[in-house]
Amino acid sequence: MEKVIKGKAWIFGDDVDTDVIIPGKYLRTTDMQVFADHAMEGIDPDFSNKVSPGDIIVGGNNFGCGSSREQAPLALKHVGVGCVVAKSFGRIFFRNSINVGLPLIEADVECEEGDEVEVNLSEGTVRVADRIYRGQQIPDFLLEILSDGGLVEHRRKQQQE
């Protein structure tokens, strides 16, 4: 996984819960394409048709609050979101994202939808145009899990060593 992620910003506000990231009616499948097709449907029904691989969600406070559904970060990952940047995350969403290999960073970033955003996970920074925002640096052991593609792949890699 790249430690620097560049993409177009998609702006969402505070308290984006897992029910709007992937509505409950889609949870009975294991088909990742279904999750991708309906990502963010509760807020923007056309999001999955507009987002491009590597794009970055920029949220407010408490992004990913609500239920502990692992399908929420899976939906974002499989629709092609390269990273989620938010002022704060629901703690279970944060760890589920790491576990499934979806990069994220806590940072208070100001930008407009469509702005080019560059996230440096190793440094804990987010760049928008000529502004650099310092975020919460992710510990090395979590970066390693992200680099390996998630917790399951990380454990497989450890067992092979």
* CATH fold-level name: Aconitase, domain 4
Number of strands: 7
Strand-residue proportion: 15-25%
Give the low-confidence spans.
none
CATH first level: which class?
Alpha Beta
Q: Identify the CATH homologous superfamily.
A: Aconitase, domain 4
* Number of structural domains: 1
Structural class: alpha/beta
Give, in spatial order, the strands making up the sheet with the most strands. Answer: 4-3-2-1-5-6-7
Radius of gyration: 15 Å
Number of helices: 7
* Sheet of most strands: 7 strands, mixed
Q: Please trace the helix and strand order, writing H or E for each element.
A: EHHHEHEHEEEEHH
Cα end-to-end separation? 19 Å
Provide the CATH architecture. Alpha-Beta Barrel
* Shape category: globular
Helix content: 25-40%
Average pLDDT, all residues? 94
How would you describe the overall organization of this protein?
This protein is α/β, with parallel strands linked by helices and 161 residues long. The protein has one domain: Aconitase, domain 4. Helices cover 32% and strands 20% of the residues. It has seven helices and seven strands. It has a seven-stranded mixed beta sheet, covered by helices on one side. Helix 4 crosses helix 5. The longest helix has 10 residues. 39% of the residues are buried. The model has no long low-confidence stretch (mean pLDDT 94).
Summarize it.
The chain has one domain (4-159): Alpha-Beta Barrel (Aconitase, domain 4), CATH 3.20.19.
Topology:
Blueprint (H helix, E strand, L loop, with lengths): L3 E8 L6 H4 L10 H6 L9 H4 L5 E4 L11 H9 L3 E4 L4 H10 L3 E3 L9 E5 L4 E4 L2 E4 L5 H8 L3 H10 L1
Parallel strand pairs: 1-2, 2-3, 3-4
Antiparallel strand pairs: 1-5, 5-6, 6-7
Helix pairs in contact: 4-5
